[in-house]
Amino acid sequence: MSRIAYVNGCYVPHNQAAVHIEDRGYQFADGVYEVCEIADGYIIDMTRHLGRLNRSLSELQMAWPVDKKAFVRIVKEVVIRNRVRNGLVYIQVSRGVAKRDHVFPSASVKSALVITARRSDPAQADAKAQTGVGVITVPENRWDRVDIKTVGLLPNVLAKQKAKEQGAAEAWFVDEDGMVKEGGSTNAWIVTQDGTLVTRPADHGILRGITRTTAIDAAEKLGLKVEERHFSVDEAKNAREAFITAATTILIPVVSIDGDSVANGHAGSITEQLRFQFRIEAEKTSVYR
Ligand code: PDD
Q1: 1 pLDDT higher than 80
Q2: 95 and 47: one domain?
Q3: Mind telling me which PANTHER family this protein's record contains (predicted)?
Q4: Domain count along the chain
């Protein structure tokens, strides 16, 4: 079966899908995006992802490419046409196509929309949840508006490549006080010795992950205490458990940081419970394809 992409009003074969060379997303990274997980045909946390997309667009004074009802129809259509029951849908909106000039183009230039979907094997994610992953730490070198989910991801790309070269799955950005911010494409969490979940406050220093938000709800359902506060690399290394969250992975245990084991170096039970409860909690904000 051939994959289908949506590009500015047309459903096209994935291998022929293309954007204009003067698309501002391509030239200036002047665009925003969302990635949603699809599980058993449900687009997970779809309503929350749309809310964050709305915020990203308005922070950058960009217009919706189509009205929101049509937008949801197109997202579902891409998922259906690609017959994705388990996988991901990728949504990108750029400020559109215009002669290269840094300042915004005229209001008549419409924002550009690309949507793709692909399948993934849930068994692979489950296996990763059993073994856990390693992370490395890197100094924060991004701008201070990482709360906006823009396609300008070069520092994230370089950090994650460095992690890969060191046999790790993620790189945690660390601020100048030695405090963990977030990963290149995930939010960072620890579980303290007394079982409290800790994650950095979602102010302007990190992206307010949708999986993070739903995981907080899930933790509250489990009666777990959640503290949104800064934590250091040292505190993380000495934590009872650590994990990362993102739509692409949901919850994955972190078993080592810069080569040092977290606790006994195995996936922890609180992370596992929360991963399970996440599924129940996410039903409330998910939409069938
Ligand atoms: N990344 N922090 C960063 C920097 C991210 O890029 C992401 C998501 C997250 C987690 O957000 P959410 O829970 O909404 O997925 C945190 C996506 C998955 C990506 O770039 O592929």
Answers
A1: no
A2: yes
A3: AMINO-ACID AMINOTRANSFERASE, AMINODEOXYCHORISMATE LYASE
A4: 2
Residue nearest atom 16 of ligand 1, based on CA coordinates: 186
Residue bearing the CA closest to ligand 1, atom 1: 185
Locate 35 and state its tokens: 């990635």
187 lines ligand 1 (CB under 6 A): yes
**pLDDT tens profile 22-62:** 999 999 999 999 999 999 999 999 999 999 999 999 999 99
Give residue 53's domain range: 4-120
Segment 218-238, tens digit of pLDDT:
999 999 999 999 999 999 999
Closest to 180 measured CA to CA, from 233, 130, 127, 144: 233
Residue nearest to atom 17 of ligand 1 (CA): 185
Nearest to 152 by CA among 36, 51, 28: 28
Q: Which among 14, 174, 149 is positioned nearest to 78, based on CA atoms? A: 14
Active site members: 149
Q: Do 146 and 220 fall within a single domain?
A: yes
| 106 C-alpha to ligand 1 centroid (Å) | 31
Verify that 106 and 149 share a domain, yes or no.
no
